[in-house]
């Protein structure tokens, strides 16, 4: 037999020689098996090229938003165009929600603030172009700008400048001697065609520190000892922070954002009330609205270390279902050099709802965990998206180019947008064409937590995936905040419940098994050794779950687990000896 295999645009010939006296009842099946074997071998040898991911790519330029066919060889087939009013050009970013709903910022005329890019307006648009919501957030005292983040609950996060007079700046210990525009983040709930309620807000101005005036309440003699606060005198300017990216994590109920001027990415607690967000206590973290984490420029809070981010945009977490899920990502405009941009991904030192730090030092890691070059340079704007198959989509904004790279950095797809574009995103057809399921709700009966009905389920406690907890109900074994994730009937969309606190566990024994066992190294490049000397003579089982909760391995009485065949990311080792309380260990795989 001589066969031809066509795979992702590359053709391969192979020859299969059979003994003429060897008879098989089904030669066709045997031939197909040989084809599959050949594909497996060539893939492992690196001969089969990586494939693109997704069906459509979304971007906005001026008064048009375009959805193009990613599979089109010329990258020129347009699937859908939204044409906006010439007076309502896209101000910065645009996103698709499930069901083809377009969220976009609008470059509104008549704003009182002149910084850029000021938007002042946000729209929610149906697939057929009908404007479902048209909301203005702009007065003489504040103005929406840059990015937005549509949330699972139907609300939207907005970034906005707010005006502080020179007198207010001085009263806060600022040395600028002029007005300042510190940023705030507000969550708006649409209430009508043009109206909305601000249901949550966070202000930079509530979390300042300074070491110039001891008579003021925000004085601290050591800035480095207070990384949870922002130094008002670090690079003071009217447009001080210049926030430019915002994103939401529904599992942790946290918000991340980037600062162009301070070269940092930050994390704050969204589980707070607005009053708690203005304070230093409350929420899942217990820290109120203080910064939970910051990274990219230790100089901004007086710590030693290297500045990694150099003009940064587009803060977000890598979502579930993708390699390295949970990593924090920032677009680094001058990360490689003054003429080469990249996307930097970091594994944060997360600890429940907070982040570990050595007092007086910079937050870990010392440098990026993973980096993807953009294939070009943009002096400002830009975005990246990490895809389920390990690819990365990058928008080189100022040159108007979108590139898709394989995990090894091979460029698989490119498109010129014909103009500046702040961000671009990839979606599959199922996501665009199907409405999302209703947000799940959790009810509690005794220690049993129940989700509203869905197709699939995954439970979390205190921001950590519970391995094997994939049923509609889960019996809580400890106090904490529980979240359930569901999917729609076609598996297109993840939807997360609001967190529900369970406090019914009054007499939970200390996990004796966890105290007896050690796991090293962690992070690991593949092999994880289990120190099981305390369990000699006992029967126990180790089950391994991937980042989305799928069981991928199980071993009895083992002292090593090999993860080297899997993608980089977070894995969970669940250990039980049938006597002590079962516990789960979080392991980071970095090859």
What does this structure look like?
This protein is mainly beta and 591 residues long. Strands 33, 34, 36, 37 and 38 form a 5-stranded antiparallel sheet that branches.
Brief account:
The chain is mostly beta strands.
Which descriptors would you attach to this protein?
about 5% helix, 4-stranded antiparallel beta sheet, mainly beta, 5-stranded antiparallel beta sheet, about 600 residues, 5 helices, disordered N terminus, single chain, globular
Which SSEs are present, and which pair or pack?
Layout: E1 2-7, E2 10-15, H1 27-44, E3 56-61, E4 64-69, E5 78-83, E6 90-97, E7 101-107, E8 120-125, E9 131-136, E10 142-150, E11 156-162, H2 166-171, E12 183-190, E13 196-203, E14 208-209, E15 230-231, E16 243-249, E17 254-259, E18 264-269, H3 274-277, E19 293-295, E20 312-317, E21 328-337, E22 340-346, E23 350-351, E24 354-355, E25 370-373, E26 383-386, E27 392-396, E28 401-405, E29 411-416, E30 424-427, H4 429-433, E31 442-445, E32 448-451, E33 456-461, E34 464-465, E35 473-475, E36 480-487, E37 494-496, E38 500-502, H5 512-516, E39 518-520, E40 527-531, E41 541-545, E42 551-556, E43 560-562, E44 569-576, E45 583-589
Parallel strand pairs: 14-15
Antiparallel strand pairs: 1-2, 3-4, 3-30, 4-5, 6-7, 7-8, 8-9, 10-11, 11-12, 12-13, 16-17, 17-18, 18-19, 20-21, 21-22, 22-25, 23-24, 26-27, 27-28, 28-29, 31-32, 32-35, 33-34, 33-36, 36-37, 36-38, 39-40, 40-43, 41-42, 41-44, 44-45
């Amino acid at each position: 037999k001589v066969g031809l295999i066509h795979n992702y645009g590359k053709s391969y010939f192979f020859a299969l020689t059979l003994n003429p006296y060897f008879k098989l009842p089904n030669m066709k099946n045997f031939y197909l098996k040989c084809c599959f074997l050949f594909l497996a071998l060539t893939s492992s040898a690196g001969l089969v090229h990586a494939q693109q991911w997704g069906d459509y790519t979304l971007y906005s330029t001026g008064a048009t938003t375009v959805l193009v066919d990613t599979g089109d060889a010329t990258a020129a087939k347009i699937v859908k165009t939204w044409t906006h009013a010439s007076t309502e050009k896209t101000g910065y970013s645009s996103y698709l929600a499930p069901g083809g709903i377009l969220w976009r910022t609008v470059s509104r005329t008549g704003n009182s603030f002149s910084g850029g890019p000021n938007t002042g307006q946000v729209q929610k648009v149906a697939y057929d172009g009908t404007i479902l919501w048209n909301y203005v957030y702009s007065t003489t005292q504040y103005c929406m700008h840059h990015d937005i983040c549509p949330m699972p609950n139907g609300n939207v996060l907005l970034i906005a400048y707010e005006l502080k007079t020179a007198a207010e700046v001085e009263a806060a210990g600022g040395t600028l001697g002029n007005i300042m525009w510190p940023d705030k983040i507000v969550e708006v709930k649409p209430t009508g065609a043009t109206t909305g309620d601000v249901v949550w807000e966070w202000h930079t101005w509530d979390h300042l520190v300074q070491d110039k005036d001891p008579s003021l309440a925000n004085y601290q003699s050591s800035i480095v000892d207070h990384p949870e606060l922002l130094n008002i005198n670090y690079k003071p300017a009217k447009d001080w922070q210049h926030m430019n990216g915002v994103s939401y994590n529904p599992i942790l109920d946290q918000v991340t954002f980037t600062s162009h001027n301070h070269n940092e990415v930050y994390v704050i607690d969204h589980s707070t009330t607005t009053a708690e967000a203005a304070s230093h206590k409350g929420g899942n973290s217990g820290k109120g609205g203080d910064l939970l984490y910051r990274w990219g420029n230790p100089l901004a809070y007086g710590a030693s270390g290297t500045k990694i981010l150099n003009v940064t945009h587009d803060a977000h977490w890598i979502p579930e279902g993708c390699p390295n899920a949970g990593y924090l990502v920032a677009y680094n405009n001058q990360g490689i050099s003054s003429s080469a941009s990249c996307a930097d991904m970091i594994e944060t030192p997360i600890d429940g709802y907070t982040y570990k730090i050595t007092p007086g030092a910079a937050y870990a890691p010392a440098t990026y965990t993973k980096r993807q070059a953009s294939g070009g340079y943009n002096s400002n704007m830009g975005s990246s998206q990490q895809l389920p198959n390990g690819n990365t989509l990058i928008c080189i904004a100022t040159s108007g180019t979108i590139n898709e790279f394989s995990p090894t950095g091979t460029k698989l797809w490119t498109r010129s947008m014909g103009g500046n574009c702040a961000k671009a995103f990839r979606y599959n057809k199922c996501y665009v064409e199907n409405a999302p399921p209703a947000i799940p709700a959790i009810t509690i009966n005794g220690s049993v937590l129940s989700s509203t009905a869905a197709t699939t389920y995954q439970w979390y406690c205190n921001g950590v995936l519970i391995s094997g907890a994939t049923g509609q109900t889960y019996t809580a074994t400890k106090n904490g905040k529980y979240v359930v994730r569901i999917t729609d009937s076609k598996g297109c969309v993840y939807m997360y419940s609001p967190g529900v606190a369970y406090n019914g566990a009054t007499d939970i024994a200390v996990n004796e098994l966890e105290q007896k066992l050690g796991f090293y190294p962690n992070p690991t490049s593949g092999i994880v050794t289990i120190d099981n000397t305390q369990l000699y003579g006992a029967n126990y089982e180790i089950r391994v779950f991937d980042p989305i909760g799928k069981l991928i391995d199980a071993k009895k009485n083992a002292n090593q687990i090999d993860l080297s065949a899997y993608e980089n990311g977070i894995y969970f080792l669940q250990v039980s000896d049938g006597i002590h309380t079962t516990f789960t260990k979080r392991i980071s795989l970095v090859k």
